[in-house]
Amino acid sequence: MLVDELPTPALTVDLDALDANIARMAERWPGTTLRPHVKAFKSTALAKRLADAGHVAFCAATLKEIAGLGAAGLGEDLLLANEVADGSRLRAVVEGAPDARITIAVDSPETIAVAASAGVREVLIDVDVGMPRCGCSMAEAGRLAQVARSLGLNVRGVMGYEGHLMAEPVDRAEKVEAAMAILLAAHDDVGGDVVSGGGTGSWDTNRWVTELQAGSYTLMDTHYAAAGVGFAPALALRTTVLSRNLAGGWVAVDGGLKALGMDHGNPSIDNANVWYCADEHTVFSPRADAPLPAVGDRVTVWPAHVDPTVAYHDTLWVVQAGEVIDRWPVDLRGW
Amino acid sequence: MLVDELPTPALTVDLDALDANIARMAERWPGTTLRPHVKAFKSTALAKRLADAGHVAFCAATLKEIAGLGAAGLGEDLLLANEVADGSRLRAVVEGAPDARITIAVDSPETIAVAASAGVREVLIDVDVGMPRCGCSMAEAGRLAQVARSLGLNVRGVMGYEGHLMAEPVDRAEKVEAAMAILLAAHDDVGGDVVSGGGTGSWDTNRWVTELQAGSYTLMDTHYAAAGVGFAPALALRTTVLSRNLAGGWVAVDGGLKALGMDHGNPSIDNANVWYCADEHTVFSPRADAPLPAVGDRVTVWPAHVDPTVAYHDTLWVVQAGEVIDRWPVDLRGW
Description:
The structure is a homodimer of 335-residue chains. Chain A is an alpha/beta fold and 335 residues long. Chain A has helices spanning 15-28, 44-52, 63-71, 87-96, 109-117, 138-150, 172-190, 222-226, 306-310, and strands at 10-14, 57-60, 77-80, 102-106, 122-126, 154-160, 194-197, 211-212, 235-245, 250-253, 272-278, 281-286, 298-301, 315-320, 323-329. Chain A contains 9 helices and 15 strands. Chains A and B meet through strand 9 and strand 11 of A and strand 9 and strand 11 of B.
């Protein structure tokens, strides 16, 4: 099937761009120095492609992602880079994947107790490095590691996500260094082999982690592109023109708020100004001399934020040179 | 099961609030004067509750919604309030629901030709009443009706959606009247029994349509609540505290960008300031004297926009007086 024969809206992955992104990242972060974050793409098929490239240790944000990776035979070294408060679900996931190595992030006595009682064996101490979300303070890290060890947990090290700096326009490298100084100070108190952190936005500036938690680089979006992180756009929403208004000079295509994560603003269309997204439409006007597309024409929409865009879809259509060559289920979405 | 025992994040529907909303709307728009828009809730189970209340004619935004309503035995009078450019999919849906009455919106010679060739029998002429999206100009409507009739289609009337006025803060009633004047003028040229339009935001001001296309009123969101439309919040995202930062005074719960439509901005939490949403977290601080919740505590998050929030979920958990009494699949999501 040709790409332009896909029923729309359809989310596509350009295989050549994906492979180029994987190769570029693997030069700087080979093997398990990269811990690909599956939250970006939520597909075990894409994860297998990363494992084939040598990245066999994965990172996840939900228990469903951990369970799915384990069930797909990708459980060599799984990190849930998130806290868990629900011991019974955690236990079910751990017991459901007896062959998987599962490490989870903890940042409080409560989450340590949940991990220990659920049968988890290994943890990282999650440290707040400047983005208000999860993570203990630098000063608490050593004490929490003691608590975890007292409950029989293997503390592999620390993690800290400088997510607030991923698209930082000014002095990104210096700010990443300052955030990682917090993490390294915590690591001094915690011990262990692992210093886990970073992401697509700090892949070229973070020299302090032992493993980089990056996922978005595989698919990319306009937000990361604007931040100049240097990977190729591989993810696109394919749409069809449903209506055009010659007098007003605008066009409406058949993908909108339910096909695109909107927290980073509107998506982009080449040579066009995007006006807004409605539930099932994106409305835009062509720039300058670009013609107004006709009803039935195909239009490629570039998502602004990969993660919440993928989470709206059940399928990633794999395309190469204008043809659809495979179909990857978004099998890790939901919770 | 108690609501607080649901695995989180979980999207819940308060049955008493839903029923009160249905009853309030039915007083003003009884029976088929209301054409409930299923795009808001994407659940045939909820649609059946509306049918039981006398609203047996439904409105939809996608072919999947039309097909699903037909398959659920709710096909008495279905309106696809959207244009279709894909004739083969349209034909498959029409042929797959031989017992359903399916009317679709058309706004161009191209979409009329698609409808006629796909076996559709009835259409509405979709008129632009001021929101740039789909819809022909008032001046074109009569000519398009002629084109449709020349191809053997039954033109039931017109539709026009004043979506840009749904939350209009200033002179909403007057602006709705002006938009509907366009629709009524087009109707004069088109003929037919149906003048379809409106929505939750104009339920109390639109006196000109023969049927109101409202869906969000069933579940509601903070955007419509701020617009003062007068229905009760029935949709909530139930979350659990994963992390709290005593020094910083913030808390992170386990629902974020992949559980909440973000085009209307952040969700709300009672007595709290929501800072931001990350992929799987919402971060907030309690207001004034409200205590900082503990890890494991439940927090109710109020979505800002119902439609793209529901589209992230596969289940609506039906709750009443603190208990989970049913589970409605979001069976109409996707395309």
